[in-house]
Specification:
about 240 residues; alpha/beta; Rossmann fold; 6-stranded parallel sheet; two-stranded antiparallel sheet; 8 strands; globular; binds adenosine-5'-triphosphate; binds magnesium ion
Length: about 240
């Protein structure tokens, strides 16, 4: 469908179109469309804008990724459909590999996503020889690099897996519009923002911050308080309602 740009819900409809296209191409799970609906509801309440608390978290997340010795970015079907190209750009700036992880895993879905990502970026990890402890199903399968990574950026992640990664003592950066979800509550840094804004914002921050000293980056991370940030997001929702 051709969406008229003047439509008041143009951006939101465009996102839906991208997901439906991904579904038709065989790599977005039908359940992914439902997950987007849950996110949209929160985004509506955040005025579909990056609020100050989210920008602050995005800056801290970039600082943590720049400080990391072995960062990794996890990508699922929704992430590939909504910002595949941008996530590759971010990974390139951070010199960081990407790994595909699917809640509703099929080999076919994984291969389509891999092909899509490889158009923009070659550092996509595929050799999964390790298992995340305390997690069932194929979601537990990861590469050796992922298994040992010190920081994992996990956009639109399920609560179980986020929790299992925190238990492995990784620093976990979540992107999740629901500040109350288990993923949001368990992460080291939570970006309560739509991924379609969060990743481009992180690219801008990464370009600005990549030459900062270790001390400056550490100060940014140290001054960030995730519990307070989540409280700010929840208070924003309360005020809005
Ligand atoms: P949890 O498993 O953490 O308790 P959940 O079961 O409610 O959370 P899932 O279905 O596992 O949620 O994952 C979807 C999450 O992703 C939701 O919290 C939703 O708000 C969020 N989400 C969906 N679309 C987007 C988006 N475009 N940008 C950011 N977050 C999104
Ligand atoms: Mg869940």
């Amino acid at each position: 469908m051709k969406l008229p740009k003047y439509h008041p819900r143009y951006e939101s409809l465009k996102i839906r179109e991208n997901l439906v296209k991904g579904f038709k191409e065989g790599y977005v799970a039908i359940n992914g469309l439902i997950a987007q609906g849950r996110g949209e509801c929160f985004d509506y309440l955040f005025n579909e804008k990056t609020q100050n608390f989210a920008a602050e978290a995005e800056r801290a997340a970039v600082a943590l990724l720049l400080l990391s010795k072995s960062p990794v970015i996890s990508v699922n079907g929704n992430v590939a459909a909504l910002c595949g190209r941008e996530i590759c750009k971010l990974a390139k700036i951070l010199k960081c590999p990407i790994e595909i992880n699917l809640f509703y895993w099929t080999k076919e879905r994984e291969e389509i996503i891999e092909k899509k990502l490889r158009k923009f970026y070659s550092n996509v990890l595929t050799e999964k020889t390790k298992k995340i402890p305390n997690l069932d199903s194929k979601r537990a399968n990861v590469s050796e690099y992922f298994y040992n990574a010190d920081v994992a950026l996990i956009p639109l992640e399920d609560g179980d897996r986020a929790e299992a990664l925190v238990k492995m003592k990784k620093n976990v950066i979540a992107i999740d519009l629901n500040p109350l979800s288990r993923t949001s509550q368990n992460a080291t840094i939570t970006l309560v923002d739509n991924i379609v804004r969060a990743i481009p914002n992180m690219i801008t921050f990464a370009e600005e911050m990549k030459n900062l000293s270790k001390d400056e980056l550490e100060r940014i991370v140290k001054n960030f308080d995730n519990k307070k940030n989540l409280k700010d997001a929840i208070n924003f929702l309360k005020e809005k309602i």
